[in-house]
Each structure stands twice: as structure tokens, then as C-alpha cells.
Write a structure and sequence with these properties.
Helix content is 60%, strand content 18%. The chain contains 12 helices and 8 strands. Strands 1, 2, 3, 4, 5, 6, 7 and 8 form an 8-stranded antiparallel sheet that branches. It starts with a helix and ends with a helix.
Amino acid sequence: MTAHFYFARRFVWIFLGILTVFFVLTVLVDMMEQLRRFDVDDVGFYSVLGLSLLRTPAGLYQLLPLIVILATIALFIALSRSSELVIVRASGRSGIVSVLSPTFVALGIGLLAVTMINPIVAATSLQYQIRSEALRSGGPSALSLSDEGIWLRQGGEAGHAVIYAEQTNADATQFLDLSIITYAETGGPKFRIEADSARLVAGGWDLRNAKVWDLKSGINRGANAVSHEILHVDSNLTPDRIRDRFGTPSSIPIWQLPAFIRELNEAGFSARRHTVWLHMELAQPLFLMAMVLVASAFTMRHTRFGNTGVAVLTAVLIGFSLYFIRNFAQILGENGQIPILLAAWAPPVSSVLLALGLLLHMEDG
């Protein structure tokens, strides 16, 4: 039991060290990307730094399998060079037993990532979208779902507007029972618009059977409404931008995803991408365990046997291959070419079985 705690502690410290290095690199690389997208003279350096810090958790979350496999490689190479694995084997323990503690630590990291880190990543990703949208278009644009319908908010130099619709189609181009309230740049309401249906086109909304109330004069009265058979309202929203907001399930905490998927289906959108993401997040701990098993299979031999560099390279390449297959299965699942459960759970389960086979072959021949 003491050896297990020792290996687990070593693995945790190495994991944290590699995570810190990747954190610094991710911030620097993302800052270069933000400086390319925004003019630092207009938005300010601290705004660019803030955007980079908000985007970094999502980047690290995607790199988590790579960090785990590098931490496992570093752990077992260090143990092999210090002959600690030789001592463990000489005491009568199998080398495979030494993998149990890092494997369970990886399982714990995966559970922690899904249950606690995932909501943090979702919150920072959402804030990044809001702030970058505000800096790019001069005003915030947002979208939300509720049991009553769809809410959107668009911003611009002339003011902003709050938009409500009962339902839309999967392409986010047709909306039913649309209501728009526009606000002046100073914050006061300007117009209220209601339409039976609307089509979102390039540059604005095409409303049918619309009524317009002028709210600048005071209380809204039905007698003051002006009817239009067809009315065009300018907007900086596009169907692609709306679908992109629905297409980023990483910006939604995993605890809220089931309810969001239900509301998405009720609103008329396809929730397949979010459902695949939900199951892949639930399978994340199992995939991290597979990364530990793969890395340990090639790095548990003593360094005096030679070919350590080849073993490390092989472990990294297999880890990248499994990661690529997992992402490829995700794409197939999102496109509907394979079932959701198969896309989300087959790669982690197959990775664990493959890693166990490699480990048994390397250790016991």
C-alpha cells in the first residue's frame, strides 16, 4: 500500500508540473492569436490578455489526454532510471501492479475534470464568446433557450435589440411568432415589433404580417400599431452565428446539458452534437485510464535495455492515434453516420482493451 501511495504521489506532482508548462505555453500561443484578431491599440493589452486567460482552460481541457500520457511516460522513465521498478519486482510484486495507482489517479483526474473542471471551462468559454463578440461587433450578441421559446440579443453601434421566437427550424433561418424590442444607444426602448413569421437573411430579418409600435412616445398602445405585410429589420445576426452558439456544447456545463438538449429538441434544433458531447464527457475518465496503460506498456522496462527513445515515441504515437480515432468517431457520431453510444464509448473501451493487451504482452510476454 505504501508503494501505491508513493507512485500516486509522484504521478500527481509530475502531472501538475506538465500542466503548468502547458498552461504557460497555451496562454502565450493564444495571446498571439488574439493579437492577430484584435488591434491592441483599440481594445487594450489587458483585454487581449483577459481573452487569452478565458480561452486557456478550454485548450488545456482538450489537451488533458496528452498531458496524462506525458506524465505517465515521465513517471515510469524516472522510476526505471532510479531502479525503483526493479526493487518493486524483486520484492515479489508484478510490474503490472505498479500501474494500478497511476491508473486510478488518472480515473480520479477524469472524474474531477468532468464534474468540476467542465463547468469552469464552460463558464470561461461562454465569457470568452461574449467578450470577443462585444469587441468585434461593438455590442453583445447572445442566445438562450427556455421552456417558453428562444431568446436572442444582438448589439450594434446604433443600439441593441432583444428578440424572442416561439420556434425555429434546424437551420436557424425560419422563426415563428417573433417579437423584437429595439433599444437606443442610451438604453431606452425605441420600437416593439411582432410578426407571425420571420426569415433571417444576410443583413437582417424579413418579417411577415408584422406590427410596429413606437415606444419612444410613451406607453405602448395597440391603436398606435403600424401593420406591414413584409418588413425588413437590420440585424448583424446570421444563421451560421446562431448555429455556432448551439454548436459549441463545451460552453454548457455538463450538469445543464440534459435539460439543454431537451429544450433544444423542443425548439426544433438538432441536439445530436450535444448528445454526443455529453456521452464523450462521461467516457473521458475511461479514456484517461487508457492513456496511462498505453504509456506504461512501453516505458516500464529498465533504461539499460536501451531503445528508450523509440519506446517513448511509440507510446506517444499510439496515444495520438487513439486520440485521433476518438475525435474521428465523434465527428461520425455528430453527422449521424454511426450511433451516438458507439461514437462516444467504443473508442475509450477499445483503447483500454488494446492498452491492457500491450501491457500484458510487454510484461509477461
